[in-house]
Every structure is written in structure tokens, then in C-alpha cells.
Amino acid sequence: MNTYLDWHERARGLSPEGRAFIDGNYVGAVSGATFDCVSPIDGRVIAQVASTDAADVDLAVTAARRAFERGSWARQPPRERKRVLLRFAELLLEHRDELALLETLDMGKPISDSLAVDIPSSARCIAWYAEAIDKIYDQVAPTGYDALALITREPIGVVAAIVPWNFPLIMAAWKIGPALAAGNSFILKPSEKSPLTAIRVAELAARAGIPDGVFNVLPGFGHTAGQALALHMDVDCIAFTGSTRTGKLMLEYSGRSNMKRVWLECGGKSPNIILADCADLDRAAAAAASAIFFNQGEMCSAGSRLIVEAPVRDEVLEKVVAAARSLLPGDPLDPATRLGAIVDAVQLDTVMGYIDAGKDEGARLLTGGNRARRDSGGCYVEPTVFSGVAPGMKIAREEIFGPVLAAISVNDADEAVRVGNSVIYGLAAAVWTRDLTRAHRMARALRSGMVYVNCYDADDITVPFGGFKQSGTGRDKSLHAFDKYTELKTTWIDLS
Asked: Which are the catalytic amino acids?
């Protein structure tokens, strides 16, 4: 295991690639424009990154379309695509330390999380979809005797994925895996706040054997590169993870262009419901703290609303506050650190603004609420817990994307469900109860794409990830993800 000093030494010797990757080559932006990639750890500039725009998008889309029509990837036998993607996954693991360091420097998460979670999970995702390639069968419809109707899946064509900054490589892998496994050409637009791992893995994909033009990476800003991709007439599909506000723009851009398929994984304000009959309040409280403070609370599925039945409210909050106070922000390059930096100064200001709003609206601040490690030059905030939160308060309705927990007291399970369903989002939810019947009934009643019972954020690549309402459309992970990147074709053969 590398030490604190080892990681700092590696960081000093790092020279990350910042150019776009188009048609098998690293290239600067057509305009020559770049932007500073700034680490939230200490404010240092890590790299100069190509600021791509519509001209670069045209080049990448042309390369992707040419590769798709040529069939250098789309028409390869499934076993060959499988072999290449498995090699790609192996290369991610071989470069695990380098990629983990880039992830931590870029967005501020603890190096221990990057090593243990982000890179292995990304590699596992790519490998899982590689293994699925030759295990998905087409269908024959049950027609009459004088006809044969074949139902086949075909790759959709050119897929553009726009991914966020909170889990840069994992969010990319969730889209890269099924899109490439299905035979599509792929263009990845990482967040301008965390582009470095996406840029680096492009070369690893090429080394694995993915043909030129099939995998492209366009760093840049949403209003330039992202918008140009979403409006492009030769992009067949946009897979977007990010804010609900931007997700709505993706739908608008589709309507203004070619009606491209749009798949959205957007915001969340997930309720974590602890009932009085919970069998283990210590475990529930520890999970509640992890649900909001892991990854600095920068998770769309974070359990940001803790809804507690009144008889156990004080006991639960006491335990959650104790857990929060044990999680002081530290140097993300220290393997002992469990809570890292907020991704940048803009997001830090957003989080602090919500903390001020909570105070102004009358919520009770139990712990936290302040910036931390000011002398580091980075972006840090204390884990923050509010109690006495009313469902209509801003901190109970809006996604904060930071380590801020809003605790809401309820009188019974029915009220808990009503409060849980009272926001525009429906990504995740949790119920803690020893009553199995109640758990099933509440899980059915909660309007969320994922409901955890006596746990939070349980995860496996085999289960779909996505939400109801304004949390988005479609699902990442599992075999259901193939629905996003394929078209169904019916071939009717008259046998009469």
C-alpha cells in the first residue's frame, strides 16, 4: 500500500494528457483553446486541457460514423468484441494506481476510495458487459405457420455519452460497457471538472484493440461540446448523467435536431426512512451517515433526507451526529482520509449557500456547517446535520450534492412515505424496519427506481440503476442497459 508521502511524490511527477482523442489519436482542439484543470485538493493546476467545441464534435462524429459504417467494430463477431473489451478491463486494472491518482487529484475523493471502489468497479463493469456479449439471444415471434418473424437487436449507431464529475470513470464505464458491447461507435464527453481519467483511458482502449474512430473523448464545457453533441444531426443517441436542469435541455436538443434517443440519469433527493421498529439502530445510523457523507455527499443517490419515526428520532440523530463528527475532512492523498474535498470552489459555494438557507429557514444545525482546511488552498466542508427540517424547506426539496443531511421527524410509516414521495425526484429510497410486510408495502408505495430495505446503496452490476419522475429515464447497469444502445428490428418472412 502506498503511503501519504508516496502519493504526494507520484502527484508531483505526474504529467497528465489533456488533449482530445479523435479517430485513434490525441489532438488539440481545432481552435487551440485550453482550460486549466484545477485540483480541489490544494488549488494547483494539474494540466492544460483541450477545450473542444462544435468543430471538434464534427470531427469526432465523422470518425465515429465512418467507423460504424465500415463495420470495423459493429460487424466483428461477438467473441472478438468480447476479447477486446476484456483486455480493456485488464488494462484498467494494470494502470489502477495511475488512474486512481488522476481521479483523486481531479475531483478530490480520497485515494483509498479511488483505489478500492472507482477503478475496480469500472474494470468490473467493462468486463461484465464483455462477458454478456455472446449470451444475449434474439427472438422468433410466435406467428402463424405461414410466416417467420425474427426480432433482432442492432447497434443504434453513434452514441455520445455526457458524464458527471462525481464518479468520473465509473459513470463513463456504465455507458462504455453496454454501448461498445452492442457494437456502437462511442464519443465520451467528460465533465470539465474531472476530464483526466476519460482522456487517459482512451489510449488504453486503443491499446486493447478497439479500432480507430470507435472510441473518442472530447473534453470541454457543456455549453460548447456538450450542446454540440446533443444537437448534432448524426449522433443517434445521447446518454447523459447530470443535473435534472441539464437533462431537460438534452430532451429539448433532441427535439430541435434529429429526435436522437435520449437517456437520462439525473438528480435525486433520496429518503432514508428509519422506523421505530428498526432492529438495529446502531447499524441504521452508521448507514445513514455513510449514505450522505461517502464521496463528500456528491452522489445523486445520496440519502440526503433522513426521515425518522418520532420515538427513535433523538437516539438516531445522536448516533448520526457522532458519526459525522468522526469524519473530519482530510488530505485526499492520505490513505487514512475518509472524507475528501468538494470538487471545486463553485460547488463549495453552492453547498455553503444551502447550509445558510437551512439556518435561515429555521432548521437546527446539530453539527458542521463550516468550511474546513482553509489553509490548504483546497475546497473542504465539514459534515453537516440539520434537524427540525420541514418537508417544504429548501434543504429538504433541492439536491445539494454535498455532505449535508436534512433530518425530518414523522409520526408513522404512512407519513414517512408521503414525505418521501413529496419531491420531484425518485432515484433511491430506503426503509429500515423489522416488519417484512411493512417493508414490502412501503417499497411498493415509494416512487423510486431503487428501494433498499435495512441497508443503503447496496450495489451490484447485475441490477439496474435509475429513477422515477425527474430523476431520469432508462437504466444504467444490468442487461437492461442494452435497451438504451440497441434498436429492435422485425424481419417478417412470408412462408406461404
From this structure: 265, 300
